[in-house]
From TrEMBL:
Record's keyword annotation contains Ribosomal protein: no
Classification via SUPFAM superfamilies: Bet v1-like (SSF55961), Winged helix' DNA-binding domain (SSF46785)
Protein family (similarity comment): Belongs to the AHA1 family.
GO molecular function annotations of the record: DNA binding; DNA-binding transcription factor activity
Domain (HTH arsR-type): residue spans on this chain: 1-88
Cited Pfam families: AHSA1, HTH_20
InterPro entries from the UniProt entry: ArsR-like_HTH, ASHA1/2-like_C, HTH_ArsR_DNA-bd_dom, START-like_dom_sf, WH-like_DNA-bd_sf, WH_DNA-bd_sf
Alphabetic keyword roster: DNA-binding
Protein's name in the database: Uncharacterized protein YndB with AHSA1/START domain/DNA-binding transcriptional ArsR family regulator
Keyword S-adenosyl-L-methionine: no
Length: 255
């Protein structure tokens, strides 16, 4: 929280968050257009926001897109605003909802978490059927080669796959891209979504970025926005403590 409040104390950084609130997923050049400041200075402000986890970045070819990360703002709302019942400040809650709204040809949801582990262990946790079964409640089954099929299989012994797809990119232990579809819509590519896992090491920790794009509607985005944090929190707990969370996090009521 200290880094968050420090980042929010600066007018320019708040202006940058406002720009992303209005139009999420902007490049550095787009953000510089409406701020009277040198490109290098804007880059430094963005670095402070990223260090506070208020924004996340995703590379698209030679460009880097910046996204508002709603999690720290949501925590501020819950801890310091909601309990004092100040409705006129409820706009902070809208930041989270707006940040998860669909953007044309841009990711529908981006989530970043930091894990005390190695890239190899995080990769294994994402691709090993036994480990995914332990923290996800489904086993992810594939040989994880580009072009291969993958399945999200129930752990009740039925062998039923609730999600299927294809491996688009596989670069262990740093990058995995897969398509997602309901089994009955496997042949309809227009109904597929796309998930990218990016694993970046930094000394003794790993930054894991999950980008889920091509979502169909607000209902699907809402499911993704609540589902990924729960699954990734369970993954983080397993890798850092050797145990999953004592209760299934996706069953915790949102209200």
């Amino acid at each position: 929280m200290e880094k968050v409040f420090k980042a929010l104390a600066d007018d320019t950084r708040r202006a940058l968050l406002d720009r992303l609130h209005e139009n999420n997923g902007q490049t550095l050049g787009e953000l510089c257009e409406r701020i009277s400041m040198r490109r290098q200075s804007v880059t430094q402000h963005l670095a402070v926001l990223e260090a506070a986890n208020l924004i996340s970045t995703v590379r698209r070819g030679r460009e880097k897109l910046h996204y508002l990360n709603p999690v720290p703002l949501h925590e501020i709302q819950e801890r310091w605003i909601d309990k004092f019942e100040r409705p006129r400040l409820s706009a902070l809650g809208a930041v989270k909802r707006r940040a998860e709204e669909a953007m044309t040809d841009k990711p529908g949801f981006v989530y970043v978490t930091y894990i005390a582990s190695t890239p190899e262990r995080v990769w294994e946790a994402l691709t090993d059927a036994g480990l995914t079964a332990a923290y996800w409640g489904h086993a992810n089954v594939s040989d994880w080669r580009p072009g291969s099929r993958w399945e999200h299989v129930r752990t009740d012994g039925s062998g039923v796959a609730d999600v299927v797809g294809r491996v688009v990119e596989s670069e262990p232990p740093t990058r995995l891209v897969t398509t997602w579809a309901a089994p009955g819509e496997e042949e309809r590519e227009d109904r597929h979504s796309r998930v990218t896992f990016e694993i970046r090491p930094h000394e003794d920790i790993v930054r894991l970025t999950v980008t889920h794009e091509d979502l169909r509607d607000e209902g699907e985005r809402s499911d993704v926005a609540s589902g990924w944090p729960a699954v990734l929190s369970n993954l983080k707990s397993l890798l850092e403590t050797g145990r999953t969370l004592p209760q299934e996090p996706w069953l915790v009521p949102t209200r």
